[in-house]
Design brief:
Blueprint lengths: L5 H15 L8 H8 L3 H13 L3 E4 L5 E4 L8 H9 L6 H4 L11 H19 L2 H10 L4 H6 L1
Antiparallel strand pairs: 1-2
Helix pairs in contact: 1-2, 1-3, 1-4, 1-7
Length: 148
């Protein structure tokens, strides 16, 4: 079974908090850690990945902290998870056929390819704004939007 790493799960929660606070000013990492009950040390390892991907910005000074680089509706789950996890393929041979000597004739590879396409399509459709909406109304209507 494909599972997200701790980095992917924690980073998504961090991004959710930044989306929730978007437009209200930067957030301190210690506040995000407290709200989400996460380790600051671990989040300090996640921040550079999100900054490198252009998803968050840091502001220095007494009123500094972290904020989203773009509005919540412009950031989807696919870009977040790729920034945090790297490749989100279920198996390496989908994107790197040369990694497996069976990929030219393996019938399962086509299944994994379809799975990857569906996952990427779904993650592309879910934005941080959708996550904010889900937290308010438990995602009413999101399922229909994602399956369109």
């Amino acid at each position: 079974m494909y599972q997200l790493s701790t980095k992917g799960r924690y980073g998504t929660r961090l991004m959710y908090q930044l989306a929730k606070n978007h437009g209200k000013g930067p957030m301190l990492l210690k506040d995000i850690a407290r709200i989400e009950n996460l380790s600051i040390k671990y989040m300090e390892q996640i921040i550079p990945l999100l900054k490198k991907a252009g998803l968050i910005k840091s502001l220095r000074g007494p009123y500094g902290g972290y904020g989203l680089q773009k509005p919540p509706e412009a950031i989807n789950m696919k870009v977040i998870l790729i920034a945090l996890e790297g490749d989100i393929s279920p198996v390496h041979c989908v994107d790197e056929p040369e990694s497996c000597d069976r990929s030219k004739f393996c019938p399962a590879r086509q299944v994994w390819h379809i799975m990857e396409e569906q996952l990427n399509d779904t993650l592309s459709k879910i934005t941080l704004q959708d996550m904010l909406k889900m937290s308010k109304d438990e995602g009413e209507g999101l399922e229909e939007r994602v399956t369109e």
